[in-house]
Amino acid sequence: MILALHDFWSAKGCLILQPYDMRMGAGTFHPATTLRALGPEPWNAAFVQPCRRPTDGRYGENPNRLQHYYQYQVILKPSPPEIQDWYLDSLRVIGIDPLKHDIRFVEDDWESPTLGAWGLGWEVWCDGMEVTQFTYFQQMGGFDCKPVAGELTYGLERLAMYIQGVDNVYDLAFNQQGVSYGDVFLENERQMSTWNFEVADTDALFDLFRKASAECKLCLEKGLPIPAYEQAIEASHVFNLLQARGVISVQERASYMAQVRDLARGSCEAYMAKYSDQWAEAYPEWAA
Amino acid sequence: MTDFLLELRCEEIPARMQAGARADLERLFREQMSAAGVDHGAITVWSTPRRLALVVADMPERTEAVSEEAKGPPEGAPDQAIDGFCKKNGVTRDQLEVRDVKGRATYFAVKNIPGRDVKDVLADAIPAIVRAFPWPKSMRWGAASISTESLRWVRPLSGIVAILGEQLVECEVGGVVSGYATLGHRFHHSGEITIGGADDYVEKLRACHVVVDHAERQDLVRSQAKDAASAAGLVLVEDEGLVIENAGLTEWPAPLLGRFDESFLDVPPEVIQLTARTNQKYFVCNDADGNLANAFVCTANIAADDPAVIVDGNRKVLAARLSDARFFWEVDQKTALAEHAKKLERITFHEKLGTVADKVRRVAKLADWLVFDAKAPNGDHKLARRAAELCKADLVTEMVGEFPELQGLMGGYYARAEGLPDEVADAIRDHYKPAGLNDEVPTAPTTVAVALADRLDNLLSFFKIGILPTGSKDPFALRRAALGYLRLVQENGLELSLDTVVHAWEGRPHAALAEKISEFLLDRLSVQLKDQGVRHDYIAASREWKGRTDFRVDRVEARARSLAAFLTGEDGANLLAGYKRAANILKKEGYEGTDRIASTGEEDPLENVDDPAMREIYAQRGKSASYDREPSEQALVDALDRAEPAANAAIAAEDFGAAMAALATLRAPIDAFFDDVTVNDPDPAKRSARLALLAQFVAAVHKVADFSRIEG
């Protein structure tokens, strides 16, 4: 399925990238999305990104909720007029026939307070299941997207469940030789849920958060937006872990989110500052 | 005369925005046509997720030529003025005409606006409509969005069909050029469809699996969903919101019934319905006995050869959702509500008002007091306290975290599941009621106590830190809390004095706070009773009791209602007129009450001694006069002697109807008095006595209500 999507999007002019080697809550955090959504340069890329959402863990007991799963991300900047048609074609190549399955574009405006980003779009339903998040980015890191990028985020496990006709994610066939998704990941889900919810050392996590935050600021001082952004990703994930451990009160929650947002914004701001002159020269109709 | 068709096609428009968009499209079109002087016939607007359409009957082909003229400055006016006039009217100086206006040569600008082809008018109007379209949320897209000035629309605009009669209206906006071609159903029809005009639009689209009329799609969803349920021997739980939403999500709606695993029915039916509705936009069904059945109705957007595939997919999604709900339901019950409630210590209610746990402690204390001390309502104060202590515990449960609208309801379920008394469970479940205008009002004493205490605490807490609603801003829903308080008091016939409430809540008397909450509640009462003919000034006239603020809202309301009934009758209206006349005379004479009686020389300091026996003596003395009273004067004295004690007794019994009836007996005597008696008699003794009589009359009326506050 991944190979079919790679082939398809590569033929549409996308660079095929590899996953980013950091823990993150969504493919949108990948610098190839977040940072590349800024500025006027065209950017078309597709990649798989593993995602970790500690609070979604269910100890392996829910048929489709996981604390670790895979997203397939496509980013097309500027958003091409054919983007919806291309997306539907991509469903066809992985075996979903929209005359047999009910495909719907249901309003879902995307917002990531921790990235200072928002966009309008839909969640795409296949027979009532959300299989893709489809977003036209309007702002990233607090900056207007000029031009707007279209982002497609496929939920790979969900699509696979569809195609294979299984009710439970752990029953997915991982290959033709009888290895299931559960064989590969069930124990991982159980242990990680236990760690996320019950075990993770919260003092160490608070410490990690502070360190990532400080490191991010250091990078910003040195004019290094990319490593600064990595630390923002780290801080964001540590914050999610702290949330799963239930040690962040409601008041504190807003304050931590604001801190993460400031790190992400700061990184985007530094990225913009670094390239603005170059961009303005190459794209006279563009202005920061 | 011909028809006009406009179709604006775009990527999927959110269902909830379509009704507003139809209205906006029609309004903007009307505005454009009226500005251009185009008379037209009926307008019809339709919407689907992918298009907005407008059909206009009886469009003219040309607009009428119009001649407009404007009067300018006189000849010989400064050049600046003349040039300004020319500029304003878009003419040159040599085009001005000179006419005689009352003997003065004056410039006129005459503009002959020729008739225009309506096609040209439309070509200008369509881009203007698109640019001015007020979407609740709009976006930029595509290569043009390198500038933030690019066109904004709800989702990318992809096509325009604009046909007047059979002629294309050529226009362009945001890079989209008008044409005859549109698209059919996203999956059932590939390629373009050529539209001839307004005549064939609907049927051509229908042939390509698009029902363009939203109302028709709504009918389809409504009736087919119902049919699907009854075919399965079930009854659809009707939901007009879902009908509209599903019609807004589809161009070719196909309601399909599916079943979910029966074991999920262990989860409360409200949870199942809410999960199905909010997350999946499914209808649910009841069985013949009215219990929730293990069935749902989803609405597909295709006519599939094998609908079972679609139903099965939807069943799996619902199963996963319900499995989550069941997970919450089971996890939540592993912890007693009292344990959940401890977590409220960590949740801020308001930065200046402490945590939710602090609030709960205040509410529990007040609920206990309401039942034990105030007997409003009558019940078991221990139950009220227990229910209040647990009433917010469900806020920290997983289920309410997922579905905030289930607050209260889940607490009720969990309370019952852990074996708490029914009164407590019911109170937890219902203490947010009444939530809306048509919501039922609780009557069970324990519930009433918690509901009242919760609202009173909200009002008093925020008032104490100086937060009151202003204009349209009421972030803490204090107006709704006040209305809830009023309805609880009204429907349960409670007599509750707000100064004692404040005392109990605050632990000491707090007059300013009592005044503030009373004023706020009376203000809401005015709004609430306005439709029932109880004017705000009737409430103003009733807000004092024995010379002080009346802290019993129920009593103010009872008096205001009696006043309304009384004053709309003939006796009341005339008595009010008599009252005003008497009060005016007293005012004109500078007669302001007992202090002034002293200046007449008849004063007796003992008269003001507050001793019943003395008052009796003086009352007797008042019956005689130093002169012979005229008959109408004597009649008024006698009427007052009868009416006053009757009114006093009625007021003491809080029977305001009877008090008004007692006052009504004064109407004829006061009318006759004014007809027959001269107040301003040359004899100071007579004048003074008659003024005193009027003052007595006014005072008698005042005991029932402050008529001076009544307007008109």
Note the topology.
The complex is a heterodimer of chains A (288) and B (712).
Chain A: H1 2-11, E1 15-16, H2 31-34, E2 43-52, E3 68-77, H3 83-93, E4 103-107, E5 110-112, E6 117-126, E7 129-140, E8 143-144, E9 150-155, H4 156-164, H5 181-199, H6 202-221, H7 225-244, H8 250-282
Helix pairs in contact in A: 6-7, 6-8, 7-8
Chain B: E1 2-10, H1 18-36, E2 43-48, E3 51-59, E4 66-74, H2 79-89, E5 97-101, E6 104-113, H3 118-132, E7 157-164, E8 167-168, E9 172-173, E10 176-179, E11 181-183, E12 192-194, H4 198-207, H5 214-231, E13 235-236, H6 240-248, E14 254-259, H7 269-280, E15 283-286, E16 292-300, H8 307-333, H9 337-342, E17 348-350, E18 354-355, H10 356-372, H11 381-390, H12 398-402, H13 409-417, H14 422-430, H15 445-464, H16 478-492, H17 498-506, H18 511-530, H19 536-542, E19 544-545, E20 548-549, H20 553-568, H21 570-588, H22 594-597, H23 612-623, H24 631-652, H25 656-664, H26 667-676, H27 684-704
Parallel strand pairs in B: 7-10
Antiparallel strand pairs in B: 1-3, 1-7, 2-3, 4-6, 5-6, 7-8, 9-10, 11-12, 13-15, 14-16, 15-16, 17-18, 19-20
Helix pairs in contact in B: 1-3, 5-6, 7-8, 10-11, 10-15, 11-14, 11-15, 13-14, 14-15, 15-16, 16-18, 17-18, 19-20, 20-21, 20-25, 21-26, 21-27, 24-25, 24-26, 24-27
Description:
The complex is a heterodimer of chains A (288) and B (712). Chain A has eight helices and nine strands. Chain A is of the alpha+beta class and 288 residues long. The mean pLDDT of chain A is 94. Chain B is of the alpha+beta class. Chain B is flat. About 2% of the residues of chain B have low confidence. At the A-B interface, strand 4, strand 6 and strand 7 of A face helix 8 of B.
Annotation keywords:
heterodimer, A: 288 residues, 8 helices, 9 strands, 44% helix, 21% strand, B: 712 residues, alpha+beta, 4-stranded antiparallel beta sheet, 27 helices, 20 strands, 14% strand
